[in-house]
Amino acid sequence: MITYRKNVPDKWEQSSFEDTVVPVLGQDATMYICEQEVVLEDLAMREIRRLSGDGHQTSVITTNRFVSKEVAAGRMFGRWVQEKFFRYLIADYDFDKMISFGTEEVGQGREVVNPEWRKADYHLKKQREKTGRLSA
């Protein structure tokens, strides 16, 4: 499990955060992060926080003991980009209304190009181009 922890009750000392390279969506980003053990309702978890330039601390909690703090932070903070992208699509393009499922009847009179003819026509055009270049 890995998720955001909202409404963090306390602030960690800024001196405990260290400048760390974090992989986010295939690129490296530099963040000030810190990790501590936290117990919530008798369940021990890892809490990873990111310190922003304005002093704001964003918290991520996870039960995964095997993934590094850099990878855990990168996975969660990389979601922001994706969430903002979809929020933008929904707000400005009604993206959530564009998706529909169904079938549509295709008329019998509709002409479709034979794929074999298209391939042969392509090769014929290429040969004519080569012949034209040789003639020139």
Give the SSE order as H and E letters. EEEEEHHH
Strand content: 25-35%
| Classification by helices and strands | alpha+beta
Helix content range: 25-40%
Distance between the termini: 69 Å
Radius of gyration: 28 Å
Q: Mean pLDDT, nearest integer?
A: 85
Question: Which geometry do the CA atoms define?
Answer: elongated
Q: Helix count? A: 3
The largest pleated sheet is described as: 5 strands, antiparallel
Poorly predicted runs: none
The total count of strands amounts to: 5
Spatial order of strands in the largest sheet: 1-5-4-3-2
Strand and helix layout:
Blueprint: E1 2-5, E2 18-24, E3 27-40, E4 43-51, E5 57-62, H1 69-93, H2 95-98, H3 115-135
Antiparallel strand pairs: 1-5, 2-3, 3-4, 4-5
Give an overview of the whole structure.
- The chain has a domain at 2-96.
- The protein has three helices and five strands.
- It has a five-stranded antiparallel beta sheet.
- Strand 3 and strand 4 form a beta hairpin.
- It is an alpha+beta fold.
List keywords for this structure.
136 residues; 37% helix; 3 helices; 29% strand
Write a brief structural summary.
The protein is α+β, with helices and mostly antiparallel strands and 136 residues long. 37% of the residues lie in helices and 29% in strands.
